[in-house]
Amino acid sequence: MTAPDATSSAVASAPAPSWRDSLAVYLQPRVLIVLFLGFSSGLPLALSGSTLLVWMAEAGVDLGTIGLFALVGTPYTLKFLWAPLVDALHVPFFTHAFGRRRGWLVFSQLLLIGAILLLALTDPARSPLLVALGALLVATMSSTQDIVVDAFRVESLPESEQAAGMAAYVAAYRIGMLVSTAGALFIVTGFEAVVPRGAAWMWGYVVMAAMVLIGTVTALAATEPAQSARAEAVTRDDGALTRVFHAALGAFSEFLQRKEAWTALAFVVLFKFTDAFSGNMTVPFVIDIGFTRNDYAVIVKGVGIIATLAGGFAGGFVARRYSLATSLWIGGIVQAMSNLSFSWLALVGVNEWALTLAITSDNFCNAIGTVIFVAYLSALCQNPLHTATQYALLTALAAVGRTYLSSGAGYLAKETGWPMFFAISVLAAIPSLMLLAYLQKRGHFEALGPVRV
């Protein structure tokens, strides 16, 4: 499905929406469905990550072992490998009862609940291997849910609601993460008043497993996307292996047949590079100039979350009001320029108001860029026969810049100092903006048509 205002002609002929119209669209039933699914997607992430690490640290697990647990996040990077199964295979009973996308949604969420409960029953002090297995299962089921939710969102929202849906999804995803980090820790603290610490952690994870039911109820209340239903009708007579093969191969071949496909892929890799390049060094920078980790945590989990939510909704407004190309220009520039707030902080020094302003600016601007970038990725996934596979591939490709290209940021910061480092990180946006100009000149964005089977 094309992103909002994907063609310049559509923008020219339609009046720009007002703030009132933009806010009203968030109350549309389909957007609310996507919002609750976003919460369900964000909730499990920390349960196999930062929250689990706190549990392990309190249990006295060796630091070396704790460090290795970063590897349990691998399924989020490799989820494109089994995305064709989600696109092509039927889940016994679930697909027949609920449909192609909703069946997989309910199925993956029930497995996710089971995986979280299994993790809750483990003991980090006595059996770290079982904890690793449980965490890996949680990450696998969580990433599978993400695959289905992404496909459902792209296929279910009409063009007029795509921007609002993406903003609502990103905001709710962040809220889900907050619930499974700060919220989970508060719940565990509450349980510690009546049961031993180990049991408190177990019941805290049980509560988190129960909260996944919010997504399950949402999936049951939703309706199967019409585009997915038509895609299902097209492949009804094909065998399972044939459908998997076509989903996997079609996701590649259909995309690569497009004009400027390789340039578009390079743009996907580089668009969030400036954000990742500076973001990887934010925590070391804040600690290095004299703030405590508590100062950083309070501001990031408080003001930072609010700024992220506000930026997400602002990004949705921008994506709905302007063409996709113009929105990408706005998102690309503001997320790059926000890095200068940390250069200013490095010159000011230890000042809580300055840190608050820098974190607010960075989170707000990066959220705008994220929502608009999601709009672009969604616009690239035009065929519901392999929406899940194509979107998973694109997000995995986008992670290249975040994970690998930015890995040398620490060496640059060491050589240049903090003020200059963050100023240089602004320049990391130039390659993506050059590609954006090239794609716009070549008519890439006007060529992004509606979803078709």
TrEMBL record:
<feature type="transmembrane region" description="Helical">
    <location>
        <begin position="262"/>
        <end position="287"/>
    </location>
</feature>
<dbReference type="InterPro" id="IPR011701">
    <property type="entry name" value="MFS"/>
</dbReference>
<feature type="transmembrane region" description="Helical">
    <location>
        <begin position="353"/>
        <end position="379"/>
    </location>
</feature>
<protein>
    <submittedName>
        <fullName>PAT family beta-lactamase induction signal transducer AmpG</fullName>
    </submittedName>
</protein>
<feature type="transmembrane region" description="Helical">
    <location>
        <begin position="128"/>
        <end position="152"/>
    </location>
</feature>
<dbReference type="GO" id="GO:0022857">
    <property type="term" value="F:transmembrane transporter activity"/>
</dbReference>
<feature type="transmembrane region" description="Helical">
    <location>
        <begin position="164"/>
        <end position="188"/>
    </location>
</feature>
<feature type="transmembrane region" description="Helical">
    <location>
        <begin position="391"/>
        <end position="412"/>
    </location>
</feature>
<feature type="transmembrane region" description="Helical">
    <location>
        <begin position="200"/>
        <end position="222"/>
    </location>
</feature>
<feature type="transmembrane region" description="Helical">
    <location>
        <begin position="418"/>
        <end position="439"/>
    </location>
</feature>
<feature type="transmembrane region" description="Helical">
    <location>
        <begin position="31"/>
        <end position="57"/>
    </location>
</feature>
<dbReference type="GO" id="GO:0016020">
    <property type="term" value="C:membrane"/>
</dbReference>
<dbReference type="InterPro" id="IPR004752">
    <property type="entry name" value="AmpG_permease/AT-1"/>
</dbReference>
<dbReference type="InterPro" id="IPR036259">
    <property type="entry name" value="MFS_trans_sf"/>
</dbReference>
<feature type="transmembrane region" description="Helical">
    <location>
        <begin position="63"/>
        <end position="82"/>
    </location>
</feature>
<keyword id="KW-0472">Membrane</keyword>
<keyword id="KW-0813">Transport</keyword>
<feature type="transmembrane region" description="Helical">
    <location>
        <begin position="326"/>
        <end position="347"/>
    </location>
</feature>
<keyword id="KW-0812">Transmembrane</keyword>
<dbReference type="Pfam" id="PF07690">
    <property type="entry name" value="MFS_1"/>
</dbReference>
<comment type="similarity">
    <text>Belongs to the major facilitator superfamily.</text>
</comment>
<feature type="transmembrane region" description="Helical">
    <location>
        <begin position="299"/>
        <end position="319"/>
    </location>
</feature>
<feature type="transmembrane region" description="Helical">
    <location>
        <begin position="103"/>
        <end position="122"/>
    </location>
</feature>
<keyword id="KW-1133">Transmembrane helix</keyword>
